[in-house]
Fold this sequence. Notes:
By secondary structure, the protein is an alpha/beta fold. Helix content is 45%, strand content 13%.
Amino acid sequence: MEHEADQILSPHVLIMPIPLQSPVNCMLKLAELLCMADLHVTFLNIDHFHSRLLRHTDVESRFLQYPRFHFETISDGLPEDHPRCADKFYEMTDAMVNVVRPLLMERLKCGSLSSKSSEAALPVTCIISEAIIGFAVEIAQQIDVPLLYFDTTGPCSVWTCLCLPKLIETGEVPFTDDDMDASIRCVPGMESFIRRRDLPQFCRVTDISDPSIQLVLTEVKQLRKAAGVILNTFEHLDKAVLSRIGTLCPNLYAVGPLHSLYNTKLAASIKSPRPHSTNSLWKEDRSCLTWLDAQLPRSVIFVSFGSQVAITINQKMELWHGLVKSETRFLWIIRQGSIIGETTEDVELLERCTKERGCIVSWAPQEEVLRHEAIGGFFTHSGWNSTLESIVEGVPMICWPHFVDQQVISRYTDAVWKIGLDMKDVFDRIIIEKMVRELMIFRRIEFLESADKIAKLAKESVTEGGSSCRNLDRLIEDIRSMSLPSPKLSGNLHIQ
Length: 496
Ligand code: UDP
């Protein structure tokens, strides 16, 4: 589909997330921010995820207020009962390439995404795709529109990924021996603190033909072909890393913490407070907020490992003993199916023994939990959204990273931002007890003070005139300009 040279089109953004909880959540928030600016938006969701969203959230009614918004769904060809979780990630990315890509190409070739909706029938003028979807470049070329990648992972990790070709070329990856404390030299800007163990976990492979490495190599090659890259961070937090990424991907939009920018814009745009809304793929148990109401200020550690991590029953027991021995009250999220090898008796025993010391629920309204005054610390897997949600609320962290960007983020939380403790690669009740006491008791003031400073900067960035607010405005202007016959992008992100 070619655009007529002199045709003026309405700006229409096609948003393509990858079908996982956190990217879908981030991209829905971005979609709503674009709708608030009156742009036409089509959100492309995998059928299976869309039904879950409809089941557990208010997305349908929430987006009804934006007549220029439209949900479009597409099949990924996987069986309905496929778990679609992190340990089946490569089956999901294969399905995206082999099923979603041709179906989408076909629909776009006909000139519109859908014949059902007049919104989706408008020509697309810009694509915003999650960065891992390498074929988005091809789709954008086919319909001759600019592509913006949204990398929803932590920018410190994005930079290490952009350096991966160099790390391989110089022989730093794959690792040549077991010394995980060896320093890494070929990630500029991180030489003084990054060790092998802090690189993304896919660097631990022994063979670079491993699909995890190949997927990232493709991603970083494609990232540089986009007209711009959207990142969920704010300039004060990631100034050095943003400058480095900017040398390879010059047009950056740092619009984070996106959830906070979204909350601020929403509060300014509506006259009366909206009932609690969510993009969660699981049903939220709000009873934990009542439990928190009865606890002392800053006395509870919140324990949650996001939407993908699964742990063994032994790890769960070590964690439970460590928490109990630390004598700190805890609110623990144990997602259904997230404990490998667990029996019903295990669940009942733990719940019985926990009543005095803590509260366990299967999914919580996490942003609200972290905002609660009873929370004094967060035992996290260092997922990027959890980290940003904690940063905004000034909650120090204990980091137990598992995969993707989490190893790098946990190192940054401890060694660079100094708002937490990195507990990677060791996990037993003794170290857990020690870390919890350190965070919640011995170094409590130090951590709360540094977390509070960064929280203030995060909030400044999303208020009117703040850097993320300005970057969002620039993004919107650029999207508008992309629908003109000769688009002019605003250019580089200027980091002061
Ligand atoms: N989350 C939630 N309730 C829970 C646990 C997690 O709403 O009980 C949300 C959390 O607020 C965050 C997301 O799930 O937005 C997890 O994203 P993150 O990037 O931290 O980790 P991932 O799930 O991608 O591993």
